[in-house]
Amino acid sequence: MDSAFDDFLTLEVNHLDVNVLTGIYSEETHLPQPLRISIRARLKVADHYAPDTPLSRSKNYMDLKHAATAALPEGQHFTLIEAVADHIIDTIFLQDDKVLHVDVKIIKLALSERGEEIGITLGRGRK
Q: Which GO terms describe its biological process (predicted)?
């Protein structure tokens, strides 16, 4: 049973600015839009992390960055930013079976007029 005091490990990559083809309006569908993407991935936690614990007991942070940048298919139009988040989550789950849950927050920078953060957060657990 999960409790508020269970051990956990969360890797984070925050505020990646990525240009992605997304949108539903005609003025949005032909040019990439700037998105700010943040990712939190909860992993199976080791019993203890000693100074010589190998990276294989955790996960490389750069894998999260890769899922939100290079792993997004070039030229692919995503109607909804929810689909962008789902693609990132699927990529991270495929990378490593130690990942138990992923949250992806996406802010549509083009909608911000005064620094507002307008967007979504999608969280999925491994099925």
A: folic acid-containing compound metabolic process
